[in-house]
Amino acid sequence: MTRKLFAFAIILGFAFVLYAQGDKSVRINGYLIDNACASAHVKDANFNERAKKHSTSCALMPPCEGSGYAVYSEGKLYKLDKAGNESAEALLKETDTKNGVMVAVDGTVEGETLHVTKITEVKTTE
Questions:
Q1: Percent of the chain's residues with pLDDT above 90
Q2: Is the separation of the CB atoms in 88 and 69 below 8 Å?
Q3: Over the range 3-41, which residues count as b (16 or more CB within 10 Å of their CB) and which as e?
Q4: Whose CA is closest to 71, among 40, 99, 45, 104?
Q5: Most CB within 10 Å of its CB: which of 50, 61, 62, 99?
Q6: What number is the average pLDDT over the span 10-23?
Q7: Burial, 54: exposed, middle or buried (Cβ in 10 Å; 0-12, 13-18, 19+)?
Q8: What whole-number distance in Å separates Cα of residue 113 and Cα of residue 34?
Q9: For the whole model, what pTM was predicted?
Q10: Domain residue ranges in the chain
Q11: CATH topology of domain 25-121
């Protein structure tokens, strides 16, 4: 009986560790792009450059704004959740950057969705 309880406790401990890792916060640095433009060009060979030079005015056009936003980082596209879309839109309306808005996003990743707790612009020297 003691062995069974000991084995159960070890399994429960591993389960707890795995559960805790699933909710781990991340910080992702990348370029902000609207989902309409991203989905139309994500398979292009030069998508990395396109994301780096994506214009703020395009991202704020009604069809692009309505599609929501994503962050392109290290070859991966992370779609923002509702809170992230609202924060990204506000950031785009306030920034002086005309092309290639780089951001740092704090949150958690679930599949391809980034659940945003904070988004800030990162000024680049390029």
A1: 63
A2: yes
A3: eeeeeeeeeeeeeeeeeeeeeeeeebebbbbbbbbbeee
A4: 104
A5: 50
A6: 61
A7: buried
A8: 14
A9: 0.78
A10: 25-121
A11: OB fold (Dihydrolipoamide Acetyltransferase, E2P) (2.40.50)
